[in-house]
Amino acid sequence: MIEINGVEIPDALMERFDKYCKDKGINEGERDRLLKEYAKFIQRSRYEPGEAVGVIAAQSISEPATQMTMRSYTMASTVGRLSKVTLGLPRLIEVFDARKTFERKMRIYPKKEYNNRESALEIASEIVEKKVSDIIEKSAIDLLDLRIELHLKDKYDSEQIKTLLEKKIKRIEVETHGHTIYVIPEKNGIKDLREIKLKILDINVGGIKGIEEAGVFQDENDNWVIETYGSNLKKIVEYDKIDHTRVYTNDIYEVEKVFGIEAARNVIAMEAKNTLDKQGLDVDVRHILMAADTMTADGKIKSVGRYGVSGSKGSVLARANFEETIKHLTRAAFRGEIDPLESIVENVMIGNVSPVGTGVVELGVDIEKIRKQKKK
Amino acid sequence: MEVGKVDSIKFEIMSPYMIKKMAAVKIEKPELYDPDGYPIDGGLMDLRLGVIDPGLRCKTCGGKMGTCPGHFGYLELTKPVIHPLFAKKIYQILKVTCPVCGRVMTSDENIAKKKPMLNKLYKSAPKTCPHCGAKATEIKFQKPTIFYEDGKDLNPEQIRERLEKIPDSDLPVLGISTRPEYMILTVLPIPPVTVRPSIVLETGERSEDDLTHKLIDIVRINDRLKKNIELGAPDFIIDDIWQLLQYHVSTYFDNEISNLPPARHRSGRALRTLAQRLTKKEGRFRGNLTGKRVNFSARTVISPDTMISVNEVGIPEVIAKTLTVPDHVTEKNIDEMRKIVLNGPDVLNGANYVVRPDGMRKRVMDLNKEEIAKEITPGYIVERHLKDGDIVLFNRQPSLHRMSIMAHKAKIMPYRTFRLNLCETIPYNADFDGDEMNLHVPQTEEARIEAEKLMLVENNIRSPRYGLPVIAFKHDHISGCYFLTREGAKFSKEEVAYLLNLIGKKSPGHEMVGKELFSLILPDDLNMEFVSSYCVGCDTCLKDKCPYDSYVVIKNGKLLHGIIDEAALGERKGKLLNKIDMKYGHARARQFMDELSKLALGVLSLRGFTISISDFDISDDGEKKIKDTKKKFEREAEKLVENYNNGRMEKLSGMTQEKTLEMYMQQIASKVSDQTGKVIKNSVNDKSSAVIMAKTGARGSYVNLSQTAAIVGQESLEGERINRGYTGRTTSHFKRGDLGLKARGFVEGNYRHGLNAIEFFFDAINSRENLMDKSLQTRHSGYMERRLVSALQDLRVEYDGTVRDNRGVIIQFMPGSDSLDPSKINHGEIDLNLVRENIEGENDD
């Protein structure tokens, strides 16, 4: 950080300044004067102490949300691109809810040497998860012999599948007859047979677990990109044909697990910003970062809502005011909690000045002193 | 009375001793009044519980209605009862404590740690007591309040004994702050009557509050239980009554406990008991504690005023005479104050009340106004009528953002509506089809100053959301500016005089070109260049030689080229507005807006402005081209469907055949709209009002134009072409399985020539979906806002520049990573061009 005339200039702002000077061909002397003036501008444009940045951020995000369309799915018209995506308000709510179940999506760039349609398609088909159910023609339960029949597609090797099945499921016998596999479990009640059949069909035989579908398309810079339904960041990053510096997934929890909380914070912000941008709604990133930072400030992802940020507040009254009033009050009584009345709502309730904005300033006047001064 | 400041609030379970100690009355009788209608001593309406009737005095504190806060009573329960809200905690505690010695069944080290671990202990379900070696019993809990031990009933009396056995030393581990047996009620506090006032109906009958009803039940059953025990009734009868008492107490606390039928009023309505009073939107918390009602406010219909300043709000005289501002009488203003008092309450600029230095309020009336005027001396406070220039707050719900409530300067006007400048309709999201708005009058000097400095309209021109003007020009303002600044706009001597008179400037006495006229209100040293909305997007921009006059050049405060339209003045665009606000300050920007708004609307009223069907006429050539495009794509679509039906269509990766066709068809539909749109652009009459509005960005768009003039296009439902209705077809007018354009909601007609019945139906489907969407999503976004605000409300910028929440945890080291306030900078960045301009200005000096 550079300091000019007592004003600290953050690196990002300095970078922008340098770029501007370079673009406009500004000479050294002018640059100095410009920098001084720039510092003045920065100083003038600062937040003032006490500013309720949180509320402003919340309003800046949710005010445009009222203009969003409800339609959750939109078909993108680019040829070949996967099109089923949750958009608009529902997606925004998903992000702030930090949901664990939603439409997972990944965006994967192949390494430079694979940057062509054929390789991209090949990678796409390699990473898509294949289950037993994908490689068989049909499956059936043979009630006479109490066994499960699997009819493999021609191109797959039944011996290979046999060893896999034996490894994955315990207490079964596997026989092969050409492309037909018979599975004879030890427990052979009809119910057991059905359960085991479902288990078998769900076994992973190739690709990366969790990647349901993959499509290939070209981005704005003519690079080939693979977009997938379903996500498995850990495995994809380990996969060697792709450029792991540019992998993206919309699964916040996965990012947290693989890259840590700071990365998760970025994903939250990016997802929120993208959903807003796609609807043509202009919101300053600073507001979205504020929300993302609050969600991740404690080192783990907390949702915006009663089970996350709002539910874990320090003040009993603030929690009771939001949702589940009775639960919070009884809990507080049980524990003997003390509400120190330090933040906004509690003070509104009590009728005190809330400690934000001009309310943070506490001035005491010593009237006696003033009187003495006057007398003098 | 000096009132102390509340420092903190402690929550606890009240002990029976405490309940008795704070009680003023012991309740013993279930009856409320004697035959004469006088409250019975020891009844639930005992006069010692407080007063709710005017004129009576409290028997406990001697206060009148309003001054007596009410006093608690207590009821001695014949047999103890479980507090329903703590039933689960009781269960957990029973499970982890030894039935024999009463110790918590965990190691001594754990107990010594004094760390609450009830949940963990409960989950581990200890089997034997490490302290006395006794075996744990099997405790079962049936919601809401029934307990079993090893299959046998465990009544509240036994539970209480069990809880009493737990030594104080073991309590911290359980996480409880008081004695656990307090969760079993032996004494019930009876709330004061002020909490449950009865209402006297017109017939003279008294109607009691729901809580009183519930309490009557409790007292009556309690009494019955006592009598039955005294009579030595059999155990099963006593147990029955005991259970009934438990039911009444449970529903008294919460009438929505699961597995418990709610207690009902005679009419069948469920009673609103304690828990119901606190929760939900209208409950005590959200309804009264956080959402307060205020005085000194007004609400009425709003209407526009073109002549009023952006900073002002027009207030009807009636309202001005009702709302007051307290003014201190001093030596300097005493004459003025006397005059105000002499005006009385009914004449504008009068006063309604006078407050004596000792705090007595006197109403000013025509009868006593002379007397009061003589009486007032410095130290008095005069509550005078609202007058021009007073600071008031103006608000429109839903208050979605900061700019939904702003400070205005009052301007007293005739008639009965609030008047506001049209530029403010954007931040308030207001229109004049019957909207109402609220007005508040700040009552202290501190509040007024804060409101003026922080909330005044001109200080909120720039939205914190995107850092560009939200208070900006719209609709007719922009059309007006177009007619003012377009090439060839000339105004006669008389017109110039009229227009300049509007903004209080002297006429030069000769005719003027529109651009000259416009330049009069620009700051003198303003320099800028930008492209206006009117731009058609040529391949190479000719800049100031633009044949469409769409390149704006302002030099030294003179508009040399270009049309001033939405790009210069509109919300979130407003380049000109933005620059004036940035460079010359909010006040100058406000002045510019005031003047331009008058000018623009003046020009428009000189000229007149209207639209008609003929605005959408297109040239014969255009008409033919549109027909051709329609045909061309129709053929293409037919071919696709044919291919699909023959199974010759290649499916795209990750899609089924049907999906692929759908996608292609949608593409065709959008291509038709795109291409006809282009044709429309060239073949529509440039001078028609509708086109001018679309081009300048005043209202409407080319999509509107082409839908009215050429083709409506694809109607969609849930993001797909319309595909429901009958089996295999949308309406019975098509063949089953017809996947063609028209059969799936493609509307070939246009609004100008009208739609045919089927098209109309499709259009209605689409409209209906949009309507439903809109009304259904507001509550989702409203809830999201509530959650977001609740999560982020405690964040604030500290003096050290960090953002922290109320725990003091640092959320950001620098707000927004660079500490810049988006509402003080230009669209998220500092405008370096402006910085440079500033130092160039220094050079000239």
Task: Indicate the CATH architecture of the domain at 297-460 in chain B.
Answer: Beta Barrel
* Helix residue percentage of chain A: 40-55%
Q: DSSP helix count of chain A? A: 16
Helix- and strand-based class of chain A?
Answer: alpha+beta
User: Can you count the helices of chain B?
Assistant: 27
The Cα radius of gyration of chain A reads: 30 Å
For the record, the CATH class of the largest domain in chain A is Mainly Alpha
Tell me how many strands of chain A there are: 13
Strand order of the largest sheet of chain B: 10-18-11-17-16-19
Characterize the biggest β-sheet of chain A.
Answer: 4 strands, antiparallel
Q: Report the sheet with the most strands of chain B, covering strand number, pairing sense and barrel closure.
A: 6 strands, mixed, barrel
- Fraction in helix of chain B: 25-40%
The general outline of chain A is flat
Number of separate strands of chain B: 31
* Quaternary status: heterodimer
Give average pLDDT of chain A, whole number: 84
Rg of chain B, nearest Å: 38 Å
Characterization of this structure:
The complex is a heterodimer of chains A (376) and B (845). Chain A has 16 helices and 13 strands. By secondary structure, chain A is an alpha+beta fold. Chain A folds into 4 domains: 2-44, no CATH class; 52-102 and 250-312, PTS-regulatory domain, PRD (Orthogonal Bundle); 130-206, Gyrase A, domain 2, CATH 3.30.1360; 316-360, DNA polymerase, domain 1 (Orthogonal Bundle), CATH 1.10.150.390. In chain A, helix 11 runs antiparallel to helix 12. The longest helix of chain A is centred in the C-terminal third of the chain and has 18 residues, at 261-278. Chain B is α+β, with helices and mostly antiparallel strands. In chain B, the strands form 10 sheets. A 6-stranded mixed barrel of chain B has the order 10-18-11-17-16-19. Chain B has a 4-stranded antiparallel β-sheet with strand order 12-15-13-14. Chain B has a 3-stranded mixed β-sheet with strand order 2-3-7, with helices on both faces. In chain B, strand 4 (139-142) and strand 5 form a beta hairpin. Chain B starts with 8 loop residues before the first strand and ends with a helix. Chains A and B meet through helix 1, helix 2, helix 3, helix 4 and strand 10 of A and strand 1, helix 10, helix 23, helix 26 and strand 29 of B. Strand 13 (338-339) of chain A pairs antiparallel with strand 1 (9-10) of chain B, so a sheet runs across the interface.
